[in-house]
């Protein structure tokens, strides 16, 4: 007796169950036929509420746009990093040149000091003799 009352009270639930089973079989078939795009199809059906609207083209375009933007960002980042490395190397070379110049100038200054001391000694000796 309970069984007929359930069928009478829930005819819509039985129909919805059939639709759910059919949708599940369709999703399983899509997974088996094209596994790489299956996630996109399932996501689209979830986003559209299962109405079957075709948003695959826009989703693929969005992914392509994202991919192109990502690649361009990587290229620009690589170019900037390369430029910074180039500047660091150039700066190091300039610093090495400046350091070598300073060292040679220091040697020149030391030599000039020695010559100055020698001249002063010579002048002091010559003043004593006179």
From TrEMBL:
This protein's UniProt keywords: Membrane, Transmembrane, Transmembrane helix
Protein name: Leucine-rich single-pass membrane protein 1
UniProt xrefs under InterPro entries: DUF4577 (IPR028099)
Species of origin: Nipponia nippon
Regions that span the bilayer: 65-89
């Amino acid at each position: 007796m309970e069984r007929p009352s359930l069928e009478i009270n829930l005819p819509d639930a039985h129909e919805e169950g059939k639709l759910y089973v059919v949708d599940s079989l369709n999703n399983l078939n899509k997974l088996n036929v094209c596994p790489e795009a299956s996630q996109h199809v399932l996501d689209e059906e979830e986003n559209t509420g299962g109405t079957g609207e075709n948003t695959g083209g826009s989703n693929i375009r969005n992914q392509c746009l994202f991919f192109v933007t990502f690649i361009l960002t990587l290229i620009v980042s690589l170019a900037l990093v390369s430029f910074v490395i180039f500047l660091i190397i150039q700066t190091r070379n300039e610093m090495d040149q400046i350091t070598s110049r300073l060292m040679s100038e220091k040697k020149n200054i030391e030599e000039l000091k020695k010559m100055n001391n020698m001249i002063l000694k010579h002048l002091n000796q010559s003043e004593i003799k006179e």
